[in-house]
Design brief:
The protein is an alpha/beta fold and 751 residues long. It folds into three domains: 2-406, no CATH class; 421-501, 2-Layer Sandwich (Transcription Regulator spoIIAA); 522-750, Beta-carbonic Anhydrase, Chain A (3-Layer(aba) Sandwich). The two termini are 77 Å apart. The chain has a five-stranded mixed beta sheet with strand order 10-9-11-12-13, with helices on both faces. A four-stranded mixed beta sheet has the order 3-4-6-8, covered by helices on one side. Helix content is 57%, strand content 8%. The chain is built from 34 helices and 13 strands.
Length: 751
């Protein structure tokens, strides 16, 4: 931790300078002693900072609690009674942390958290711009809209912008300019001095220089930081206020404590998540540990006479922007607050508010940057509307109300989405039947019943239906009651065969049952013709390309095909690892006889396999499938003109048999002349010719296959698989694949 002091100390110093006026302003807005705000800042920095697990969060008195604090002080009758409620609120927070209740932060949508950040940014800009130009009706520069401000008319607010103090305006504009260009100017960046700290120092120098001109340039005390000056340091302890624990006999004290604990905890958790999002290192703070730290912090602050504390996103964002590395910067900020009260009030009172306001304006612009609004708009209405609602509500009301409004709108979108798509309806056209698969989403509420009813009502009479709830985590009892009625009454009346999986864990009368076949049965095989089988293969390849493969149950396929097999097609393909037929055609186990040999050549043993598949096993279609970039075809082309064969080079005497067969499809003279990129195209042309030759071999050398073709019991189709795109190109039944004579580039090169 101490190794990072070179970065943490400047960051803590800048955070301290920003926190100082905020502590005073929040105390004033809460109707509490000004010293209670400073004390809360000290406790938030030193006590909470030491106990927290966050590297970047900074705690202190929160603007979001001002209305609650002011109300509870009035309700309980005294500030000391309110301090007792603060101590009890700290106990509640401590308990929440110990039971690990910090997880609730994860239930807040990112749109709400980003809306919180943007709203804070907007408030910073709106509240600090008057200070930048020297209009300081509240000299402590609070970031929140106080009640008095809310009651101002638009005309009064507008008029305030014309009440300009020239020195403050100059300092404010110079400060904003420096903050914007500091990291972009190489010389300034190399100084390693944080821009906000430089802005404060320059602001003090400009104040002295311009004020010396007198007249309109003289900066009044109201435009400077105002810290109480202690003539005697021992008077510090006289400023401490002890709680009135007799107030614990009043039930209202506990209501105040519960209110404080809930609001402070929610604000802390959301601010913690927001500041973590700003951390360049993207570290995650332990939420439950933070609640423990905040609980102890509020107990300490209440016992000493300070305001309630929470994690504060403004200080945290300034801390991150100033380059903080560890939580030591938060501790330093608290120590500096203590030291300034004791030893440096006079020096601090020379800092112009316009310089501090400039830091907050630039910080606000970063939090509410136009790019953030554009990013949320690109996320669609479900992201944009909760985000905008959160921003508007926080700016116009307060943080808690804004968060609640953002949550309500986010939940509305969730409910709408759930009611609109409680299920996913897929129609699987399988061999011999059509399966309507109804897949349930993770959460199925009662709002989705109408959509589910419509999906099931659209199932054609006599179809197979699969109710698949394996992905569901929750299904509403009303939905289960409807499904039970559908399965036991509606489906039989409409001749629907209903299979179920995953519903048994919710209701015993919805037990798992599968009535459809995963594979092709002998009865279905007999009803199919070659054209229908080809169409199934084409549809399977289309599903493969879209990534929408059927959800095959391998265990049921194995069990179903153990006794017998009834393939629809036999695929004579290359042994290439990129061309597995069952995957390319999204087929079940047992639906395809796969014959794989390098170069998909058809010699005696291959012909025997194909004859068996068609004559004995009943396959209806023979697919001769080559593929692009075929290694065997490439080897055959490269071997032309060589004195030593491929088999001899590799020491594999059987390879030459395959190469010789493929070379029968090559124009030797042309092959020897084609080089470069054209050679790869030529290899693919040879692969096509090789597919056509294999088909001719099967027809001319197998009388049985020729007989079955003439009877219309089988058909042969040539195909080419593109290994780059995944597409299978099919020719016409019993016809060759189209092959260009020779591309013009080949002819030109050959000539």
């Amino acid at each position: 931790m101490f190794k990072t002091l070179s970065k943490d100390f400047p960051a803590g110093s800048v955070t301290f300078l920003v926190a100082l006026p905020l502590c005073l302003g929040i105390a004033l807005a809460s109707g509490a002693p000004l010293f209670s705000g400073l004390l809360a800042g000290i406790v938030g920095g030193v006590v909470v900072g030491a106990l927290s697990g966050s590297h970047t969060s900074v705690s202190g008195p929160a603007a979001g609690l001002t209305a609650i604090v002011a109300t509870q002080i009035a309700t309980l009758g005294s500030f000391r009674a309110f301090l007792a409620a603060t101590v009890i609120a700290g106990v509640f927070q401590l308990v929440l942390g110990l039971v690990r209740a910090g997880f609730i932060a994860h239930f807040f949508p990112s749109a709400v958290v980003k809306g919180l950040l943007a709203a804070i940014g907007v408030i910073l800009i709106l509240k600090q711009v008057p200070h930048v130009i020297g209009h300081d009706p509240d000299p402590i520069g609070d970031m929140a809209f106080e009640q008095a401000d809310r009651e101002n008319t638009f005309t009064e607010v507008l008029a305030s912008f014309f009440d300009v103090q020239y020195t403050a305006l100059i300092i404010g504009l110079v400060s904003i300019g420096l903050l914007l260009v500091w990291d972009k100017v190489a010389l300034l960046k190399r100084t390693k001095i944080p821009a906000p700290l430089a802005v404060v120092a320059i602001g003090v120098l400009l104040t002295k220089a311009l004020s010396s001109l007198g007249g309109p340039f003289e900066l009044a005390t109201s435009h400077l930081v105002q810290v109480p000056v202690l003539e005697d340091k021992s008077a510090f302890f006289e400023l401490l206020t002890t709680p009135d624990f007799s107030a614990l006999a009043n039930g209202a004290t506990y209501m105040a404590a519960v209110t404080l604990a809930i609001v402070a905890s929610l604000e802390t958790l959301l601010n913690l998540e927001a500041v973590d999002a700003l951390d360049p290192k993207q570290r995650r703070s332990p939420a439950s540990r933070e609640l423990v730290a905040q609980g102890i912090g509020n107990m300490t602050s209440g016992l000493l006479g300070g305001l309630p504390v929470t994690s504060v996103v403004v200080r945290g964002s300034v801390n991150v922007g100033a380059g903080a590395e560890t939580k030591m910067s938060a501790i330093i900020h608290g120590i500096l607050l203590l030291l300034c009260v004791l030893f440096l009030p006079t020096l601090l009172n020379t800092i112009p508010l316009s310089a501090l306001a400039a830091i907050l304006v630039v910080t606000g612009f970063k939090l509410a940057s136009p790019s953030l609004f554009v990013s949320m708009a690109r996320g669609g209405k479900a992201q944009l509307l909760p985000f905008l609602a959160t921003v508007a509500a926080i700016v116009l009301t307060d943080m808690l109300k804004g968060i609640v409004i953002g949550l309500v709108i986010s939940i509305t979108f969730i409910l709408y989405s759930n009611s609109r798509r409680p299920v996913r309806r897929l129609v699987e056209k399988r061999a011999g039947y059509e399966l309507v698969r109804i897949e349930f989403v993770e959460q199925v509420s009662f709002l989705g019943r109408s959509v589910l009813e419509r999906a099931l009502d659209e199932v054609p009479r006599g179809s197979h239906v699969l109710l698949d709830a394996r992905s569901a985590d929750y299904i509403d009892p009303d939905i289960l009651t409807y499904l039970s009625d559908f399965v036991h009454h509606h489906a039989p009346a409409h001749d629907l065969k209903v299979s179920m999986v995953g519903l048994e864990r919710y209701r015993s009368d919805l037990a798992d049952v599968i009535l459809f076949q995963e594979h092709v049965t002998r009865g279905v095989q007999r009803t199919m013709n070659p054209a229908q089988v080809l169409e199934l293969l084409k549809q399977g390849n289309e599903r493969f390309l879209r990534g929408e493969n059927f959800r095959h149950d391998a265990a049921r396929q194995i069990a179903g095909t153990a006794a017998a097999q009834s393939p629809l097609a036999v695929v004579v393909g290359c042994i290439d690892s990129r061309a597995p037929a069952e995957i390319l055609f999204d087929a079940s186990i047992g639906d395809i006889f796969s014959v794989r040999v390098a170069g998909n050549v058809a010699r005696e043993k291959v012909m025997g396999s194909v004859e068996y598949a068609c004559a004995a096993a009943g396959a209806k279609l023979v697919v001769i499938m080559g593929h692009t970039r075929c290694g065997a075809v490439t080897a055959a082309v490269e071997d032309l003109g060589e004195t030593t064969s491929v088999g001899t080079k590799l020491g594999c005497k059987h390879i030459d048999v395959l190469v010789d067969e493929i070379q029968k499809s090559i124009d030797d003279d042309l092959a020897l002349q084609i080089q470069g990129e054209d050679r790869a195209q030529f290899v693919d042309q040879v692969a096509r010719r090789n597919v056509n030759r294999t088909m001719d071999n099967l027809v001319t050398k197998s009388p049985k296959l020729k007989e079955l073709m003439d009877q219309g019991k089988i058909a042969i189709v040539c195909a080419m698989y593109d290994v780059a795109s995944g597409t299978v190109e099919f020719g016409e039944l019993n016809e060759h694949l189209p092959v260009a004579d020779v591309p013009h580039t080949f002819q030109a090169q050959a000539s």
